[in-house]
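Now for one record.
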Amino acid sequence: MTLEIPREFVNLILEQSRAEYPEEACGVILGPLGSGKALRIKPMINAAHSPTFYEFDPKDLLTLYREVDDLGEEINVIYHSHTDTEAYPSRTDIAYAGEPGAHYVLVSTRDEIAPESEFRSFRIIDGQVTEEEVTITD
């Protein structure tokens, strides 16, 4: 599989990740139900306020699910940053991956790399991690 994502969304994710450092940043990208298209980005608050873990606030998550249902959308991408490690799902990320149809995007904000070089996407299904190609569109 390939994730097709607008450059604007990539830039917004990277900006959010840098702005929220040293905490992990997180959010979702939504699109019309069944389309697989990334059409609307929604940054979320990391309720854990942690440099090593992210968690959507339960009230924000409930609001998100209601909004998605009302608008006939689905969550196509769940993204978050890793502050000091590579952009690869941790054991915790794998354990909490509950949207088998979603792309899981990770970016790294560690100092020794350029964050854009570690913008990666994965599918996580039943504990199995598969990296996928990312196509950035203009």
User: Anything to note?
Assistant: The chain has a mean pLDDT of 92.
